[in-house]
Design goal:
Number of domains: 1
CATH architecture: Up-down Bundle
Radius of gyration: 21 Å
CATH superfamily: MFS general substrate transporter like domains
CATH topology: Growth Hormone, Chain: A
Order of helices and strands: HHEEHHHHHHHHHHHHHH
Strand order of the largest sheet: 1-2
Strand content: under 5%
Largest sheet: 2 strands, antiparallel
Shape: globular
């Protein structure tokens, strides 16, 4: 197994390959194929007791509910991981949970008028439940993955290495998506039936296997957990570890202000990414093939955007870069609200790709820079970043869903997302990044 060496190329590439492994889930399941399949495989209006809800709102609420659960429990796991030295162990556990749940989606064949009510209810529960469980595995592992960044590279390389991870993720996920697209468009090339949903459901199997398989690279190269375990009540010590980090953060104005800003603008970023597919399908009548082409465009531009804004941050600093991206995000929301044509939405997707990777990569790198130097409890520190990220997704997706449920218009939801970016921008302007290499 690999040992920990700062700025070791093999370790860095291994770390980046975790993005390659799990980003296939983020792209195929949460963005490109599954959202459209879910809407087509469930009734437009779903009855839950005496309450009626649209399937697109239920999809948004499923994301919200998942992240709310994770926000409640992941900080405790982070504290336990820091105290007990089990970062890699938890990363493996969440990866397996997510990948296995992804494989379960193969059995989500959808509702049908020929099914009994019980069968249709089971299918809706299976599709929603397996999706939520796979989200738990995906998002739950990210806090442990992110926490490795300050442990494997020196601070002057945070921006580029963070961008490298996102670039690996974009490129790897696009490769798998292209194969999935070929299967869906030309199933006869693969000896698959042209009728039915098996081709689409096989893509879920491929994502699960891709995720499990490529994650073995970082598992082999990242620093191993300590062989000596600390004694004591791990649950109690985890809480104590978390509380001690919280006491430190409370005294750090810039860290706190960044987290509050991050909460608002990340609510907009993540909601736009998770729900762009349902918006394109419902409001602009994008078909599955058109949507996948749109997402491939977004991903390739995303690779360029992540690396471009990493370079901009070297030139003008993290603060300048993030402010520019937030202004672009606000313009994107307003443009998407107004667009009526598919061609216009392609241009909007290209703009999203430009700022998508850069925003996520630089947010992670900026938070790393705001941590006190020589911080040992990196997982606990990142747990607060992770909690704010998850609560932001809850707030953003819930707001998107509830506005659509109230108004019956997804476009109004986009205006709500714009307001998140505006508030995030105003708060971020108060953040000072004091490190020498960050120009404010």
């Amino acid at each position: 197994m690999a040992t920990s060496v700062m700025n070791d190329k093999k370790v860095i590439n291994g770390w980046a390959f975790f993005d390659w492994a799990n980003s296939a889930f983020a792209l195929v399941i949460t963005t490109a194929i599954f959202p459209v399949y879910y809407l087509q495989s469930t009734y437009d209006i779903i009855n839950i007791g005496n309450f009626e809800i649209s399937n697109s709102s239920l999809y948004a609420f499923a994301i919200s509910g998942t992240y709310l659960i994770l926000a409640a429990f992941s900080p405790l796991l982070s504290g336990m991981a820091d105290y007990g030295g089990r970062k890699k162990r938890y990363l493996k556990i969440f990866t397996r949970i997510g990948a296995i749940a992804c494989l379960m989606l193969f059995f989500f064949t959808g509702v049908s008028d020929t099914n009994t009510l019980a069968q249709n209810n089971f299918q809706t529960i299976l599709g929603t439940g397996a999706f939520m469980l796979s989200m738990v595995g995906f998002a739950g592992g990210l806090v442990f993955y992110n926490a490795y960044l300050p442990e494997i590279v020196t601070e002057d390389r945070y921006d580029m290495v963070s961008a490298k991870g996102f670039s690996y993720g974009f490129f790897g996920s696009v490769l798998l998506l292209i194969v999935n697209l070929a299967m869906i468009q030309k199933p006869e090339w693969f000896g698959l039936p042209q009728e039915g949903t098996i081709v689409v459901r096989l893509s879920f199997i491929m994502v699960g296997l891709w995720w499990l398989g490529f994650s073995q690279i970082p598992f082999r190269r990242l620093p191993d957990d300590p062989t000596e375990r600390k004694k004591g009540n791990l649950f109690k010590k985890g809480l104590e570890e978390l509380y001690s980090v919280w006491k430190e953060i409370r005294t750090q104005f810039n860290t706190r202000m960044f987290l509050f800003s991050f909460f608002f603008f990340n609510a907009g970023v993540q909601s736009m990414l998770y729900l762009a597919g349902t918006f394109a399908e419902k409001e602009l009548s994008f078909g599955a093939a058109e949507l996948i082409i749109l997402i491939i465009l977004l991903q390739f531009v995303g690779i360029i955007g992540a690396l471009f804004f990493a370079k901009v941050s070297e030139w003008k600093g993290n603060k300048f870069s993030i402010v520019v991206m937030l202004m672009i995000w606000i313009a994107i929301c307003l443009a998407a609200y107004a667009t009526e044509a598919k061609l216009g939405f392609y241009y909007i997707a290209a703009a999203v790709g430009l700022v998508m990777g850069g925003m996520q990569a630089l947010s992670r790198a900026t938070y790393s820079k705001l941590m006190p130097e020589k911080t040992e409890d990196t997982t606990s520190y990142f747990s607060f970043y992770d909690v704010f990220e998850k609560l932001a997704i809850v707030a953003g997706t819930f707001s998107f869903g509830i506005v659509e449920q109230w108004t019956g218009n997804m476009r109004i939801s986009l205006l709500a997302m714009a307001s998140f970016f505006v508030v995030g921008l105003l708060l971020f302007l108060r953040v000072t990044i004091r490190r020498p290499e960050a120009i404010n």
